[in-house]
């Protein structure tokens, strides 16, 4: 048992939450739930990023104050996460007083340490990224992320002396080879650093919607600089040193690959500049693609783009497929760290094959045969069952996979056990046998369902609870201690088994 602090990026409030956000939130949620299951003291943080020029513009367009606008748009994310059963312990909004206080304390320390200086900045700026680009970084003269036009900007700004951290960053990458994962993403970030680092502009005078610079009230911090610091706000940086010492060494940032530069170059350097350790782990996930394009709200809103992805809201899928099926698909279909293609067809097909035919069928057939052959009372498992070995393999496979942020592998391991159990039932056909001769095989199948409920509890919490109750157990699999609770032989027998409706009715 240990401590586990996991964060998602804070999501930009300017549009409705879409499936790309949900992909990140569901993965972080499942990993957090797994760690709670291990008995780790766990802190799971998500939230919304609410400053910057785009937000101020949108507010104006809607004839609202930025504060009212962000109240409304932040709520959409909170609602989406409730729908998806996201179990975050904290939800941070960068407009909260606690965040202003942490940002100002943190950046004041960097300023006092001599790593923030004043200078004039001139460059090409993408308003969607809220970031400057060099001419070489553009694609056909346009923003490489959004493929939109960039504008020329000149500002008298404060600069973070990122260039002073090249060597220290390289040393850190060398000394902590696992800090950034997967390895290919680590190398990508490393090549940014090796390419040479320039100082970055971190304040703006062109707008007021931001955190004021404590030593110069005519400036606000650039939205990215305040946003990154949210990970420290949530653990009380600046007000509660003990809490920071408790949680910061255990932080895991789950991020999308489009923000590698901010998280794997700027952020560790900012931490060093403020005199704290860089984050212990940054895990970079890939993009969900639809028809080969990134699932991005900015691109979807682009008139020139043929892809209209803002239509795929999490709620539009959960209404149709159910919350746990959507969670399962997001966790199972694409290895975290790789890009994946999303399609409704693939979701429907996985629903039928994995959930209806495999898991749902196993639960239904075991309950039916226990009903017809054992009077609805579950027998004890067979200590010698061939399924015991398959179960042990599933438990250790799942545990290893969750530990390395590989939910798809954890679920594959679990589904191998489900498949083996369905095959064992086919082979022994207890529904054809005499009552009294089937106790071992049915007790063992019930034991598999108990173990499966434990193993899927992080990914599909409501389904896990439902299976748990149907096989007669009380409480919730989420409150059992893993992996010990998943050792073979825990099903006590003598419990009433309920058939119930199909967990995942087959879809046409
Ligand atoms: Zn851009």
Characterise this structure.
This protein is an alpha/beta fold and 508 residues long. It has two domains: 3-115 and 167-172 and 224-321, 3-Layer(aba) Sandwich (Rossmann fold), CATH 3.40.50; 343-496, Isoleucyl-tRNA Synthetase, Domain 1. The protein is 46% helix and 16% strand. It has 18 helices and 19 strands. It has helices at 19-37, 53-61, 66-83, 97-112, 166-175, 183-194, 223-228, 230-233, 241-247, 260-274, 297-300, 314-321, 323-332, 344-373, 387-403, 407-428, 439-456, 461-470, and strands spanning 3-7, 11-12, 41-49, 90-93, 116-126, 131-133, 151-160, 180-181, 200-201, 203-204, 212-213, 216-221, 251-256, 281-285, 288-290, 293-294, 340-341, 377-378, 495-496. Strands 1, 2, 3, 4, 8, 13 and 14 form a seven-stranded parallel β-sheet that branches. A four-stranded antiparallel β-sheet has the order 6-5-7-9, with helices on one face. It has a three-stranded antiparallel β-sheet with strand order 10-12-11. The longest helix is centred in the last third of the chain and has 30 residues, at 344-373. Bound molecules: zinc ion (ZN). The site of zinc ion has 6 residues, from loops.
Q: Please state the CA-atom Rg, rounded to the nearest Å.
A: 25 Å
Low-confidence stretches: 296-308
What is the CATH class name of the largest domain?
Alpha Beta
Hetero groups in this structure are:
zinc ion
The helix/strand class is: alpha/beta
Number of domains: 2
Query: Which CATH architecture of the largest domain?
Result: 3-Layer(aba) Sandwich
Residues in helix, %: 40-55%
**Chain-averaged pLDDT:** 93
> What is the terminal-to-terminal distance?
45 Å
Write the CATH fold name of the largest domain: Rossmann fold
The CATH superfamily label of the largest domain reads HUPs
Kindly estimate the percentage of residues that lie in beta strands according to DSSP: 15-25%
Count of alpha and pi helical runs = 18
Please describe the biggest sheet, giving its number of strands, its sense, and whether it closes into a barrel.
7 strands, parallel
Task: Tell me, briefly, the overall form.
Answer: elongated
Number of strands: 19
């Amino acid at each position: 048992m240990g401590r586990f602090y996991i964060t998602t990026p804070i999501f930009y409030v300017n549009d409705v939450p879409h499936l790309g956000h949900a992909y990140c939130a569901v993965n972080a949620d499942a990993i957090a739930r797994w760690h709670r299951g291990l008995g780790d003291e766990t802190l799971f943080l998500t939230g919304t990023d609410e400053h910057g020029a785009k937000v101020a513009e949108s507010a104006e367009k809607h004839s609202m104050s930025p504060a009212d606008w962000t109240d409304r748009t932040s709520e959409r994310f909170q609602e989406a996460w409730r729908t998806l059963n996201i179990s975050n312990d904290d939800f941070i909004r960068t407009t909260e007083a606690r965040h202003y206080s942490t940002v100002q304390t943190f950046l004041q320390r960097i300023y006092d340490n001599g790593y923030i200086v004043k200078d004039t900045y001139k460059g090409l700026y993408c308003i969607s990224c809220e970031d400057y680009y060099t001419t070489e970084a553009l694609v056909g003269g346009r923003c490489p992320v959004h493929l939109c036009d960039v504008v020329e900007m000149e500002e008298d700004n404060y600069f973070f002396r990122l260039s002073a951290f090249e060597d220290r960053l390289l040393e850190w990458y060398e000394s902590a080879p696992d800090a950034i994962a997967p390895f290919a993403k680590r190398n990508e970030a490393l090549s940014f650093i090796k390419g040479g680092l320039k100082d970055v502009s971190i304040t703006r005078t062109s707008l007021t919607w931001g955190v004021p610079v404590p030593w110069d009230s005519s400036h606000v911090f650039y939205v990215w600089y305040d946003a990154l610091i949210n990970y420290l706000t949530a653990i009380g940086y600046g007000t509660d040193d003990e809490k920071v010492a408790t949680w910061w060494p255990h932080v895991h940032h789950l991020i999308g690959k489009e923000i590698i530069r901010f998280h794997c170059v700027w952020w560790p350097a900012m931490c060093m500049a403020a005199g704290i350790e860089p984050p212990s782990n940054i895990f970079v996930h890939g993009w969900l693609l639809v028809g080969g394009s990134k699932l991005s709200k900015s691109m979807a809103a682009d008139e020139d783009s043929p892809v209209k992805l803002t239509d795929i809201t999490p709620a539009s899928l959960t209404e149709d497929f159910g919350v746990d099926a959507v969670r399962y698909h997001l966790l199972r279909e694409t290895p975290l760290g790789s890009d994946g293609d999303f399609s409704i067809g693939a979701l429907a097909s996985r629903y039928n094959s994995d959930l209806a035919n495999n898991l749902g069928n196993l639960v239904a057939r075991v309950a039916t045969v226990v009903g017809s052959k054992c009077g609805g009372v579950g027998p004890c498992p067979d200590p010698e069952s061939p399924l015991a070995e398959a179960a042990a393999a599933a438990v250790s496979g799942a545990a290893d996979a969750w530990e390395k942020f590989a939910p798809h592998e954890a679920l594959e391991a679990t589904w191998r056990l489900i498949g083996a159990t369905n095959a064992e039932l086919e082979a022994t056909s207890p529904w054809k046998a005499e009552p009294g001769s089937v106790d071992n095989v049915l007790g063992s199948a019930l034991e598999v369902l108990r173990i499966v409920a434990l193993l899927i509890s992080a990914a599909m919490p409501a389904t896990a609870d439902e299976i748990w109750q149907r096989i007669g157990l009380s409480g919730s699999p989420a409150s059992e201690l893993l992996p010990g609770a998943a050792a073979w032989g825990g099903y006590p027998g003598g419990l009433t088994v309920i058939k119930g409706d199909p967990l995942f009715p087959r879809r046409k």
